[in-house]
Amino acid sequence: MSDLAEGGVFARVKAADGEQAESALAAAENAQSALAATTIPERVAWLEAIAAGLREREDELADVIVREAGKPISSARAEVESAAERFERAVEEARGLNGEFRMGTTTGHEGWEAIIKPEPIGTVLCITPYNYPLSTTALQVAPALAAGNSVVLKPASKTPVSAAILADIVASADIPAGGFNFVPGHAGAIGDVLAGSDQIDAIAMTGSSDAGEHVARQSGIVNLHMELGGNAPAIIFPDADLDAAAAACTKGGLKYAGQRCSAISRVLVHESIHDDLVKRIEGEMDAYPMGDLFDEATALGPLISADQADWVEDLVIDATDRGAEIVRGGRRNGQKFEPTLLGRVPESARLVAEEQFGPVIPMTTFTDENHAIEIANSTDLALDGCVFTTGYDRALRVAERIDAGGVRINGAPSHGLGDIPFGGNEDSGIGREGIETSIEEFVRYKNIVL
């Protein structure tokens, strides 16, 4: 594995082949009955042990995340804490799996009494991304275990080391043998074996829309639980608090070098305030220096790969060729891409329609509310969005008209720990994620009529 902090190689992970993937699937299937027979207190004990294990190995995990994902150390530590909190949150939600009692209320069912009992769906395949290699993994694994399922974990091939440490922690949590299976490897070698197996009952996936579509085509009759690509618009009206809007758009666009599905990927600004907002965002960008990833002052690191840097560079060139102005940045050095601000980006630019996953803030003007909505909804990616205005009625009206799974008013999108369900419309996903919401996706209900 490449060391994105200091160069060279910092770890080696053996990639599983198709035969090993099939062995993991068989182990998970064989463990289903043992998992299903466990009690809620037993599952709570697993989750608490895993959360404690993550905290005990916080320094080791943070170091790994810095190196494999290229995150600044402060962000890496925050990710470890987020992962632990997600397992703890699953403890609370697991205790809510208590079923219900119902009486028959229709003709012919008079006097019927029924127990509605939640039971595990079976085996959950977790396919996790490189950008949050530990916390997003926790968001999938914790609900699956809380519901009593076997788990097969396929981490991103670029960032498997933190997931390997998680697997080691899970192995110490007294889960029945075969209940948790760590299968690192390249998607081309094992992806279809896993996704296409009839031993899988649900697939939880975070990744690109193209990858999600491929997995969906390969899968059988399973529950698909997918959070995919995003291209979140921020719509800024003239009555907005422009200082607050500038701060939110800068953080929303540059955090983790823009490599987040919920990143603000395009700023749609009323034409009358474009130049003013450009100046304010440019000023905010001073707070996002690049540097040594182990320096607490560093806010930005490299992109995950040279290919990703190529992609971002191509999008910026396309925008400038179409008339966009480079206000700040725009230069690249290997995988490092300067935080970049582009003004007057035309609607025809690819940056307006395509997911960039880079530290670029493109600003496009609109003339009125209808025009802003038209631009915002001009892409098939519909994960997140946000609107900045002091007008209450306008805020709600625009939020309802934006085609997205979630819209934040006067703030940048944020998925948090999963207490509020999130997910995308259109090509941005299937279903909604969140600890409680995901648990519901990973159980099925049996009615027992007394």
From TrEMBL:
The active site is at E227. The keyword ATP-binding does not apply. The keyword Coiled coil applies. InterPro entries: Ald_DH/histidinol_DH, Ald_DH_C, Ald_DH_CS_CYS, Ald_DH_CS_GLU, Ald_DH_N, Aldehyde_DH_dom, ALDH-related_metabolic_enz. Gene3D superfamilies: Aldehyde Dehydrogenase, Chain A, domain 1, Aldehyde Dehydrogenase, Chain A, domain 2. It comes from the Archaea. PROSITE patterns: ALDEHYDE_DEHYDR_CYS (PS00070), ALDEHYDE_DEHYDR_GLU (PS00687). This is Aldehyde Dehydrogenase. Keywords: Coiled coil, Oxidoreductase. Signal peptide: none annotated. Belongs to the aldehyde dehydrogenase family. Residues 73-100 form a coiled coil. Pfam families: Aldedh. Residues 6-448 form the Aldehyde dehydrogenase domain. One of its GO terms (molecular function) is lactaldehyde dehydrogenase (NAD+) activity.
